[in-house]
Amino acid sequence: MILLVTRQKSATVSGIICRGELCNNAGLPASPFRIVIKKKPALMWIDAEANFERFSHKDSIDYYLEKIKSLGFTHAVVDIRPITGEVLYKSEYAPQMKEWKGAKASDFDYLEYFIKKGHELGLEIHASLNVFCAGHNYFDRGMVYSGHPEWASMVYTPDKGIIPITEEKHKYGAMINPLNEEYRTHILNVLKEVVTKYPDLDGLMLDRVRYDGITADFSSLSREKFEEYIGKKVANFPEDIFRWTKNTDGKYITQPGKYFRKWLEWRTKNITDFMALARKEVKAANPDVSFGTYTGAWYPSYYEVGVNFASKEYDPGKDFSWATPEYKNYGYAELIDLYATGNYYTDITIEEYRKTNRSIWNETDSQAQSGTWYCVEGSCQHLRQILKGNKFMGGILVDQFYDNPAKLSETIEMNLRRSDGLMVFDIVHIITKNLWKEVEEGMKRGGSL
After folding, report:
1. Tell me: the pLDDT tens digits for 209-226?
2. What is the pTM of this model?
3. Nearest C-alpha neighbor of 132 from the set 386, 436, 378, 364
4. C-alpha–C-alpha distance, residues 288 and 79, integer Å
5. What are phi and psi for residue 80, nearest 5 degrees?
6. How many angstroms separate the CA atoms of 404 and 374, rounded?
7. Helix, coil or strand: residue 395
8. Do residues 386 and 339 touch, judged by C-beta distance below 8 A?
């Protein structure tokens, strides 16, 4: 919280010293010291699928936007392109999601109404889109299932070899090969369409701008492009990248090949190059729109998805053995106007983490991780170091606290105090378990209410 103090005339009313603009708004004189409080941004995320039925009604949108505004939130992040690749508006490029689990879409313009109502309340409205995903493997639904199976990422599995990700049914997201030119043209058209069709939209929040994990992408296209990058043929593919072995517990782990680190460097270059291109095209279509993204905060293992969200001024090679000397050239923090990252940890303080010393296995990890990165306070400290002054919104995952609601308040407070703002995922979790009191308490203790 920033306090700006300036000298002005004094006044008291009924024994109460008026505070700057509050007195002015009431038609009263200002106080000796005008205190202007600039709150940190607080973002509430509204997932498309989980909230499809609820927010297909204007009165529900009204109610919950008024609710989050009353609790000190400044932004609503409205998901309009879930992992199926369908969109929640009428598009020239993508199929519209008109039904989800039996619920029918509204007959009004979903995003337009969010923008209208949000702006009436003084909220910023940012549209979230899943980028390199276009299918839901649990339901065999989405663009890779209805016309574009060639877009699906090819994954290198320990037991089945290289297969389409649509055959990995334990993974819900059918991720896309980020190098597929046809798909890249498609998704860029969607992004430009959104910021053009909705000129009053405050920003985009891009999600899943990454590879699926360490197993992706091992298509013939990726092999060809990688060989072009290193200027030589890979004789043993994929073993020269890595091969699967079993550890003493019988679990599969990766054993790096001779091109492993170069492969990691090349993948993160691909993602950073795409982010630069997307920003350029989005800003050309609408110069005033914010260009934002969400990623997981677990930087020590995020190389597995080809993402380097650090500052270009940070050299990960000094801290991590997986980074080549060139890896630092592909940090993309400076491309981002609004960055939200997932501090999805149930240990809040460093002291608490050191007592539990728990191992964390995030969605995108191939193996468990540990260290002070993996608590909220520690994550914020480390993020400060790698982002080099670039701001970040500390994100929380509400359903991690179903069994301990008091800690939901604690993680909200910690993120507000130690990061540059807050991102809450997702409103449906708060509604389902009626955790509004815990949210309110955290916002108060964090100084946003």
Report:
1. 999 999 999 999 999 999
2. 0.91
3. 364
4. 20
5. -120, 0
6. 18
7. strand
8. no
